[in-house]
Design a protein that fits this description.
Layout lengths: L1 H21 L6 E8 L5 E9 L4 E10 L2 E13 L6 E16 L1 E8 L2 E7 L5 E7 L2 E3 L5 E3 L3 E9 L1
Antiparallel strand pairs: 1-2, 1-11, 2-3, 3-4, 4-5, 5-6, 5-7, 6-9, 7-8, 8-11, 9-10
Length: 157
C-alpha cells in the first residue's frame, strides 16, 4: 500500500511540473501509470515526451517487493492510416533494476519494444500495450521474450 501511495504522489508531482513545462514548450507530453511484466509485477509512473516528428522519449520508475527499476526509452511512433487515435511504435531503451533480496544486485538490461497506443479522441487519455523483451546484459546474461507492459496516461498539451 505504501508503494501505491508513493506512486500516486509521484504522478501528482510530475503532472504539476509538466503543466508548468508545457507552457514553455509546444511539444506534447503524457504522464501515467504503467504495469511491466518483467521480473514479477512491476508497477510505477511513466512520462512520455515528444522529441519532434515521429520521435518520442519515455522514462519510467517502477516498484515491486524488494525491486526498484528505472528505465528510459526512445520510440518511433506513427498513426495507422484511416484511424482516429490509434497508432503503433517501435523503439529501444535501457533499464536498471535494483534488487534487495539479502544481497544487493543491480541488473542492466536493453529493452526493445513494439506496441500499440490509443489516444481517446474526445478525452486527454491514452492507453498503450507493448511487447517489451528483456535482454539482461550482466549477472549471467539472459534474454526473456515473454515480457510486456501496458499503461494508461493523461495527455498534456
Amino acid at each position: 500500500m505504501k508503494k501505491v501511495l508513493l506512486s500516486v504522489a509521484a504522478v501528482a508531482i510530475l503532472a504539476l511540473g509538466a503543466q508548468e513545462a508545457k507552457a514553455q514548450s509546444p511539444q506534447r507530453a503524457a504522464i501515467g501509470v504503467v504495469f511491466d511484466g518483467t521480473a514479477g509485477d512491476l508497477w510505477g509512473v511513466q512520462y512520455k515526451q515528444s522529441m519532434g516528428g515521429a520521435n518520442n522519449g519515455q522514462a519510467q520508475i517502477m516498484f515491486d517487493d524488494n525491486v526498484v527499476a528505472v528505465g528510459a526509452d526512445w520510440q518511433y511512433a506513427r498513426p495507422f492510416s484511416g484511424t482516429n487515435g490509434l497508432g503503433w511504435y517501435a523503439g529501444v531503451g535501457a533499464q536498471l533494476s535494483f534488487i534487495d533480496a539479502g544481497d544487493n544486485i543491480t541488473f542492466v538490461a536493453l529493452r526493445p519494444q513494439l506496441g500499440l497506443e490509443f489516444k481517446i479522441p474526445a478525452a486527454p487519455i491514452g492507453l498503450h500495450a507493448d511487447w517489451k523483451p528483456d535482454w539482461r546484459l550482466n549477472h549471467n546474461s539472459d534474454f526473456d521474450a515473454s515480457t510486456f507492459s501496458f499503461g494508461i496516461k493523461y495527455t498534456l498539451r
